[in-house]
Structures are given as C-alpha cells and as structure tokens.
Design a protein that fits this description.
By secondary structure, the protein is mainly α. It contains 17 helices and no strands.
Length: 516
C-alpha cells in the first residue's frame, strides 16, 4: 500500500466531504458536506455554552461555600461575645490553677508522660522547685528567712523523650498526609473537577466551531453561534436553578426559526479553498480595501481610547474626577466585534487548509500560509482581550446584542467578498436569508430584554425584603420601648426614679424640708 493509498483510506469521509481544490461540491456530496458542517457548528455552539455554564456552576458553588463559611464565622463570633468570660475560661480549661490533675492534661494516651513544672516568673527552674516534690529549694529562700509570697504558677507541658522520638519517626508520614488532605480540601473548595471539565468542554466547542469553518460558509457558522443562547436558557434552568419566563420561550422560538431560515436561504454548495485560490482571493482589490478599512477602524478606536485615558489622567492630576464616557465603552465593544470577524475571516482560511492537509493534500507549501496563520494567532487573543474588556466596562445586556450584530455584519461582508458566499444567491435566497437574520436578531434582543426584566424584578424583590426587615426592626424596637415603659409604670414606688418620689411626711430624713 502506498502512502497516498494509506492517507486516502485513513480519511475517506473528509475526502468525500471537501472534494478537490477548485471544485464546488454538488449533488449528493452537497447535502452530506453542508449537513456535516451544520451539525459540527451546532455541536460546537452547544459544547461552548455548556462549558460556560459549568464554569458558572462551579463559581456559584464556590460563592455559596464562602457565604456559608462567613455566616458560620459570624455566628461563632456572636456566640463567643455572648458567652461570659468566666464561662469561656472554664471551657478553655485554665491549667494555671495550683490543683492541676495530671490525668486531665493527657487523656489521649497512657504512654504520654507529662511533667508539670511550677516556674517562678523571676527565677530559673531548679530540680528542687518541681511540683511533683511539692518543696522549694534552699536557694529560693530569701536571706531573712521569710518565705516568698505565693505566685501564680505557670504550667509547662512536655512529653517524655521516648514518646517524642516516636512522634519524630512519624512526622514525615503525617506531613505527607496533611499535604494530601490540604490538596483534597483545596480541590473541593475551588470545585477543580467541575472547572477542569468546563475548560475541556469549552475548548472542544471552540475546536468544533473551528472545524465547521473549514466545511461550510463563514456566515452560517457565525449565525449558528446564536444557538448558544438557547443552550444557555435551557441549562440555566436545569443546572443553575434559574427561573424561566415566557419571554425566554418566545426568544428560543425566534432564534430557532431565524437560524433555520438562514440555513435554508443560504447556498448549500461548498467551495474548496486551497492555498492557490486563497492567495488569488486575498489579492483582490475589494478584499484589500475591506481589510484596510477594518484595520483603520480598529486602530482609530484604540487610539481614541488611549487619548481619552491620557486626558483623564491629566484631569485627575488636577483634582478633577472624570467618569468613563459611553462613547469609550461603546468603542471597546466595537473593537472586540471588528477583531472577532477578523478572527473568523482568517480562521476559515486556516481551518480549510488544515482540513485539506488532513485529507492528504498538503496546503502548507506557500509562504502566504504563514501570513494567514500569524494573522489568526494575533487576532484570536486580541478578540478575547477586548471582549473581556467590553464586558468589564459595559453591562452584558448592552454588550451581547450589539456585539452579536456588528460581529455578524462583518462576517457577512467578509464572507461575501473573500469567499464569495453570496455569489450564486437568487432572490429567494436573499429573502429567506435576510428574513432569517432579522428574526434571529430579534430573538437575541428578546433574550436580553428578558434578562433585564428579571433583573428589575429581582431588584424590586430585594428592596421589598430590605424594607420589610427595616420595618420589623423598628417594630421590635417599639415593642421593647413599650415593654420597658410599662415595666417602670407598673413597678412599686420604691423602684421609681428618686426625682419622682413624693416628699416624705412621716418624719423621714426629708421631713424638715416638707413644704407647709
């Protein structure tokens, strides 16, 4: 068997799906190629959102555990403050008493030899001053023969040398056990298992999306990415215990219908983009203008951000507090969206080359491949940085729908110019595709509106509970005041305040001051 025969036998499905360079798949291969890419894209979006949900689940568990520990510590502190000091001393065990029972100090093991030594605070220990002998050495007597005043003894506990050696032999084993136990507790506390599983699932989802870019149109992959919102709604109920509303159900229907119309409205033939065709496409004037314009927008927005922060630092140096403007917040979202469709643009080229190379047709023979790879590797971390930065300065209800729209619009334009995804569109294709995109966008906006309504309701509920607790505290204070007043009014005259006492008329000490 030759090398080529072995390669083709190893990747029969991939070869049948992608076809040859310069060909458009048609007939039965069209259905299998397009269906495979759509299925991989759906799985990628599902796994990606499932990984994010698992991350959120782990974070929720960690936060609940911290709150529980905080409440327990607060309760313990409250109990300790409420306990009388004499009772706390008795609970702690005051071993400074003269009558110390040796058995109570070491009940754990009969082999523990404990020696209690009474030591004077000023003098050093001497053998004759041990409590076991109950006598003081001659050197402890003062010259005038008067015995020293008794002082509170200090108890020193020490183990016998044989027991100490026995403990030293097992120190290494105990330390190793303690380390393992510490690691186990740390893993449980931080939900390491769930976090690692979330990272694996999220990475698998991104990998599937990357493969889908090499199988079907770029615009279809980005639109199917909205399926993650549906998975988020479903997993939020069954994994995170969040409540769903009717708006969530309507949003799920709109997103599903929008994705379906977009898929049916697109052209189902897949073009195989080898490195020669990609080089030709990247050299087109329209593609060069598109890339230059997008780079200009990105650089301009980043320069605007730096300029604002430089100006704000100058203002703050003069004691003037400047808040971040909404235009700056919007620029973070916009830069993230523009870099994101750059990532998809170069990612599709990179993915297509990898898929064809895996099928046996090596595409890493042209130097232009390294330009594509470098551009993809630069845009990917930059996208992640600016998406995180946008979420840090913007509310998620603002970021998600706007980012999704600008990201997909850029993806549509890039796919149409570079990969000619709408070259063979008919009127019916345009109508179905545009209608599906509009319905999909409305579903995304409805998801965010539902979240806004839930947040408003939660805020209202918290305010009502806070007001209820405040009123309850006031009522308790009023009841305590009333009870104290009633207690003073119903008590005997002798318990009243002296200023309210009547003048004595029975010959008391104030009888001489009694008014006539």
């Amino acid at each position: 068997m030759t090398d080529m025969d072995f390669t083709n036998s190893s990747f029969p499905n991939i070869t049948s799906v992608i076809g040859s360079c310069g060909e458009d798949s048609s007939g039965s291969s069209t259905s299998s190629s397009f269906a495979s890419g759509v299925l991989v894209a759906f799985l990628g979006s599902t796994f990606e959102q499932l990984g994010l949900t698992l991350w959120k689940l782990a974070d929720n568990r960690v936060q609940k555990r911290r709150e529980l520990r905080k409440n327990i510590l607060a309760d313990d502190e409250h109990v300790e403050l409420a306990t009388p000091s004499s009772h706390r001393d008795s609970l702690a065990g005051n071993v400074d008493d003269e009558s110390v029972d040796q058995r109570t100090l070491s009940p754990a093991s009969k082999n523990d030899m404990i020696e209690v030594v009474r030591r004077d605070s000023d003098d050093d220990l001497s053998p004759s001053s041990q409590i076991s002998g109950r006598s003081f050495g001659a050197d402890t007597q003062p010259e005038d023969g008067i015995p020293p005043s008794p002082r509170k003894p200090t108890t020193v506990i020490r183990f016998d040398s044989e027991v100490e050696e026995k403990h030293i032999e097992t120190d290494d084993e105990e330390n190793e056990t303690d380390r393992l136990e510490s690691w186990r507790v740390w893993c449980v506390e931080k939900e390491i298992v769930v976090t690692v599983l979330a990272a694996i699932v999220y990475a698998a989802g991104n990998g599937l999306n990357f493969v889908a870019l090499g199988l079907i149109q770029e615009s279809i992959v980005t639109l199917i990415g909205a399926w993650a919102l549906v998975i988020n709604i479903v997993t939020a109920k069954y994994m995170l215990g969040e409540e769903l509303s009717r708006l969530d159900g309507v949003a799920v229907i709109l997103i599903a219908v929008g994705i379906a119309l977009s898929i049916f409205g697109s052209h189902h033939s897949t073009t195989v983009w080898c490195i020669k065709r990609l080089v030709t496409q990247y050299k087109q004037l329209s593609v060069i203008i598109l890339i230059i314009m997008n780079l200009t927008v990105i650089i301009s927005l980043i320069s605007f951000q730096f300029g604002f922060f430089y100006w704000r630092r100058h203002q703050e140096s003069q004691g003037i507090l400047v808040k971040m403007r909404q235009s700056v917040k919007f620029s973070y979202m916009m830069v993230g969206a523009q870099i994101s469709w750059f990532t998809v643009l170069f990612g599709k080229s990179f993915s297509t080359l990898i898929v064809q190379t895996a099928a046996g047709d090596n595409q890493f023979t042209d130097p232009f491949v390294f330009i594509i790879v470098i551009a993809f590797l630069i845009s990917l971390p930059s996208q992640l940085f600016y998406v995180a930065a946008s979420l840090a300065v913007n509310d998620a209800l603002f970021h998600v729908p706007n980012f999704f729209i600008f990201y997909n619009l850029g993806s549509f334009i890039g796919g149409a110019l570079l990969y000619e995804e709408m070259k063979e569109f008919t009127t019916e294709n345009y109508v179905l595709f545009i209608l599906g995109v509009l319905i999909l966008f409305s579903g995304v906006f409805l998801v965010n509106h539902s979240q806004k309504v839930k947040r408003r309701q939660l805020k209202k509920k918290l305010l009502e509970e806070e007001e209820k607790n405040r009123l309850g505290t006031i009522e308790e204070g009023n009841e305590e005041s009333e009870s104290s007043v009633n207690g003073r009014s119903s008590g005997p005259t002798a318990d009243r305040s002296p200023s309210l006492q009547p003048w004595p008329t029975d010959g008391g000490v104030f009888s001489e001051l009694t008014p006539p």
